[in-house]
Amino acid sequence: MNRATLKNNTFQTINLPELTRVPTMITEDEKKYLYWLARDHVSGDGAVVEIGTWYGCSAGYLGAGLRDSGKNIPFHCFDRFELQGIEIRKARQQGFTVQDSQEGEDILPMAQNHLTPIYPIKLKKTYAADIRWEGGLVELLHLDAPKRWSDILHVMETFLPFLIPQKSILVLQDFGMPRAYALPLIFGALSDYFELINIPSEYSTMAVFLYNPVSPEKLNSQKLNIDDWSSEYAQKIWDQIGVCYTNSSQKSFFNFGLALYFYRNGHKELAIKIAQENKPLLFPEKAILLEKRLSTALWRAAFK
Ligand SMILES: C[S@@+](CC[C@H](N)C(=O)[O-])C[C@H]1O[C@@H](n2cnc3c(N)ncnc32)[C@H](O)[C@@H]1O
């Protein structure tokens, strides 16, 4: 896949195939983008891998894209497949009857039932920190689970040797989501390996990178521990990667992530200043998604 392909946003005109509805955390634009990538752009030089599958919605559209491309490309999904309370509430909000669902329930069988009729996908129940990979080259890596810097690093160390320079593509969900601030910080710091190519939609927090290694030495895990960074370094990395946002409301939402990071790392005044500078433009509907203890504390401190 090349830059021009990835920047071409014709995916928005795609008619998605009809798949059985399952609870999901992805948007219509994200479904279309994943389907379009898998159907029209994955060549088969490597496998497709997803981390963060839940009930299988995104995997379903990736699988349908591979199916409709007529190519027989291996597709592997990793997830802890362990239902959380917040996920039960989310599924309920989407109109699914989940009375019998329990926290901690193994939902791999449900994902498997959804995906089996679509495409032969290998599902693996594992924590991100324990993922091992022996499946050869990887052409498309879709990350929708790891948000902690240490998990992200483990995943990148595991898959980096199997990525194809100038070809493998990394799709990060939640990149623009404030509470997932570790993603822009780490991928900003990894700009020697990953080139941010596209923010395909203003109705999504997804970002698309091309593996374009400039200096592919071993990843330096010490340098990637975001909890040890100086505020100046974090700000520099954030500003560099943040130029991808030209839409001011997306940008202010994104910048709230830096405020959260600073708040968590003890730079409270700086955090409050950034939150105040960015509040007027926050997407109102997305501000609701910030309801989490840390965000609420920052929100109160900045806007009391
Ligand atoms: C946002 S949901 C994925 C949504 C899904 N891609 C969709 O299409 O709706 C995140 C998923 O990541 C998984 N997850 C989160 N943290 C994880 C971890 N540390 N290890 C393994 N799986 C994890 C959760 O079990 C959950 O299924």
Question: Care to describe what's here?
Answer:
The protein contains 12 helices and 7 strands. The protein has 304 residues and is an alpha/beta fold. It folds into 2 domains: 3-211, Vaccinia Virus protein VP39 (Rossmann fold); 245-303, no CATH class. A 7-stranded mixed sheet has the order 3-2-1-4-5-7-6. Helix 3 links the parallel strand 1 (47-51) and strand 2 (75-79). Helix 2 (28-41) packs parallel to helix 3. The mean pLDDT is 91. The site of S-adenosylmethionine (SAM) has 17 residues, from helix 3.
Series of secondary-structure elements, N-terminal to C-terminal? HHEHEHHEEHEHEEHHHHH
Per CATH, the architecture of the largest domain is 3-Layer(aba) Sandwich
CATH class bucket of the largest domain = Alpha Beta
CATH H-level superfamily title of the largest domain: Vaccinia Virus protein VP39
Structural class: alpha/beta
* Rg over CA atoms: 19 Å
Distance between the termini: 48 Å
Shape: globular
List each distinct ligand once.
S-adenosylmethionine
CATH topology of the largest domain: Rossmann fold
Name the beta content range.
5-15%
According to DSSP, the number of beta strands is: 7
Helix content: 40-55%
Number of helices: 12
Largest sheet: 7 strands, mixed
Strand order of the largest sheet: 3-2-1-4-5-7-6
Mean pLDDT: 91
